[in-house]
Amino acid sequence: MTKKLIILVLLLAGTLFSSAQTNKYNKFITGRWLNEEKDAIIKIYEVKGEIFGKIVWLKNPLRNGKPKLDDNNPEKKLQSRPIKGLVILKDFVYDEDMEWGDGTIYDPKSGSTYSSYITRKDKNTLDIRGYIGISLFGRTTTWTRAPKPKPKK
Predict the structure, then answer these.
(1) Tell me, what's the pLDDT at 149?
(2) Which option is the CATH number for 24-145: 3.40.47.10, 1.10.10.10, 2.40.128.520, 2.60.130.10?
(3) Residue 112 and residue 138: Cα distance in Å, rounded?
(4) What dihedral angle (degrees, nearest 10) is formed by the CA atoms of 146, 144, 23, 88?
(5) Is a pLDDT exceeding 60 seen at residue 15?
(6) CA distance to 25, 59, 77, 111, per residue, from 65 (Å)
(7) Rounded to whole angstroms, how far apart are CA atoms 119 and 128?
(8) For the chain, how big is the Rg over CA atoms in Å?
(9) Could you give the maximum distance between any two Cα atoms of the chain, in Å?
(10) In terms of C-beta density within 10 A (0-12 exposed, 13-18 middle, 19 or more buried), how is residue 142 classed?
(11) pLDDT tens, 74-87?
(12) DSSP 124
């Protein structure tokens, strides 16, 4: 009985330590990021130790006077979702050396979802690699930290 309790305590401590390590590094990429084309700002945030990102600003948010929709999505039921507010980064976890992996990135321009990892180049630059299968077959895009939003009057 005592051995089982010790093992359980050690496993719990290891889980807590691992979670604390993840949270420690996630702060380096959370915030608002301008995509490479400079036509969208993505807010990167943490949920339960994982990294997510959603579109919070679009340079051209309207099409024919209405909000742009996710009309390139292969799933018909998702094509009516607005692009603004769309979660495009999901499930990233910190690996090591300022890299987050095991996530996916959704490209609303093509309607495709790719395996992905994020590398922090410096405090104002991220490289996001999307790929199919192995990372050799993919593309890297560079995001820069977005300016702070102006206070609303």
Answers:
(1) 80
(2) 2.40.128.520
(3) 13
(4) 80
(5) no
(6) 41, 14, 22, 22
(7) 6
(8) 18
(9) 69
(10) middle
(11) 999 999 999 999 99
(12) T
